[in-house]
Design a protein that fits this description.
alpha+beta; 6-stranded antiparallel beta sheet; 1 helix; 15% helix
């Protein structure tokens, strides 16, 4: 599974969950047994729908691809948060 597919799957799970997002949710990778892999990169879903990668130490990786959930679609954004509509993934729930 590629990173992009992993992100899409995790975002859809977050969208379908019934819990409200307080400030931000963190998506961790897990192994085949369901154990969280804190030593691997994780993603933060912010309250505005932006998804940003973090390294294993918790530092935000702005140079890595970022995504934005907008109108039931997932779009790629640049390092400044501008939406790149030509690189949208068109994932709908």
């Amino acid at each position: 599974m590629t990173t992009a597919h992993f992100i899409k799957a995790m975002v859809l799970l977050c969208l379908m969950s019934n819990s409200a997002i307080a400030n931000e949710q963190i998506i961790y990778q897990s192994d085949s047994y369901g154990n969280l892999l804190h030593n691997k990169p994780s993603w933060v879903v912010q309250h505005n729908g932006q998804i940003v990668e973090r390294d294993s130490y918790g530092n935000t990786q702005h140079q890595k691809p970022q995504y934005l959930i907008k109108n039931n679609n997932i779009y790629q954004t640049d390092g400044y948060g501008n939406t790149l509509y030509n690189k949208g993934h068109g994932v709908k729930n």
